[in-house]
Design brief:
The protein is of the alpha/beta class and 281 residues long. It has one domain (2-279): Rossmann fold, CATH 3.40.50. It has helices at residues 12-15, 28-43, 57-68, 134-155, 169-181; strands spanning 2-7, 50-54, 83-85, 162-167, 188-190, 214-221, 240-249. Strands 3-2-4-1-6-7-5 form a seven-stranded mixed beta sheet, sandwiched between helices. It is globular and about 55 Å long. It starts with a strand and ends in a 32-residue tail after the last strand. Residues 115-127 have a biased composition (Polar residues). This is Phosphoglycerate mutase-like protein. Pfam families: His_Phos_1. Residues 270-281 have a biased composition (Basic and acidic residues).
Length: 281
């Protein structure tokens, strides 16, 4: 299996440096990023068997944009549609939802204490809601792997399949850490042709994700792993190996310029003209 871990396109809250589960709209630039990503996969003959996406709009719209560039049916409709999962949604920031990241004690990409909590709200009339703990995020990652990824590996270990997961920066880091825990560290490697370089063990890589950047993994079963099944999904993948092919790959964004005049960072309106049409009259 080739597994692609993809971050969604740029959203309003990315521009404003805010984070959380608030369903922030994509920007015009974010939509161009998605279009470029879909074209990249198509032009490189990367065709997906399944695409999973967070239930937040910025993620499932990104996934739908990828699907739109995949092979279509005879009537021109996408054959592939995103599979939406609440397990993949962003970290909840509780009472700090909508606040600037610079003004919070916890940033989504940092290595927080497993029981990290948000600071109390200054407004005593507003009930305090804690930041979602890393433990809770990890449980979501485990549930998703056990229900959707590991059964596929065990049922069709030799399948030459491409699976994409479109999610959010904070969750993808936790998800990656859980994937690493499934393997013997000595069976995790970095593709020598990768554009990512690390001077330490591959299992210790701490990846980050740009908007529409993706991590590509190749997971294969060795002879020792034969016979393992979904009845024991929470154990080490004995005999399996994982190769890191790409970390935050964003070749599709080369040459992509943000439209000036504030248009690029503005909220995308699905009913508006394509951005380049603003300048054709």
């Amino acid at each position: 299996m080739r597994l692609f871990l993809i971050r969604h396109g740029e959203s309003e809250h990315n521009v404003a440096q805010k984070a959380g589960i608030t369903d922030s709209a994509l920007t015009n630039h974010g939509m161009l990023q998605i279009e470029s990503l879909g074209e990249y996969f198509s032009s490189n003959a990367i065709y997906f068997d399944r695409i999973f996406a967070s239930d937040l709009s910025r993620a499932h719209i990104t996934a739908a944009g990828i699907c739109n560039q995949q092979p279509k049916s005879e009537n021109g409709e996408p054959i592939l549609t995103p599979i939406i999962s609440g397990y993949l949604r962003e970290r909840s920031f509780g009472s700090l939802e909508g606040k600037l990241l610079a003004n919070t004690s916890t940033k989504p990409e940092s290595k927080e204490n497993d029981n990290a909590q948000s600071a109390p709200s200054n407004d005593s009339s507003t009930p305090h809601v804690e930041i979602e703990s890393v433990v809770a995020m990890r449980q979501r990652a485990i549930s998703f792997l056990n229900e959707h990824i590991l059964p596929s590996l065990f049922e069709c270990p030799d399948a030459d399949s491409n699976v994409a997961i479109v999610s959010h920066g904070a969750f993808l880091r936790v998800f990656w850490n859980r994937i690493v825990e499934l393997f013997d560290p000595t069976n995790i490697s970095v593709d020598p042709n990768s554009d990512y370089w690390s001077d330490g063990p591959a299992a210790f890589i701490l990846p980050s994700w740009s908007n529409t950047g993706f991590m590509q993994l190749s997971i294969q079963q060795g002879k020792e792993g034969a016979g393992q099944n979904a009845a024991d999904p929470d154990v080490l993948l004995k005999g399996w190996s994982m190769k890191i092919v790409a970390v935050d790959r964003k070749a599709h964004l080369e040459g992509l310029q943000r439209t000036r005049g504030g248009i690029g960072s503005a909220t995308h309106d699905p009913g508006q003209k394509k951005i380049d049409q603003f300048f054709k009259n």
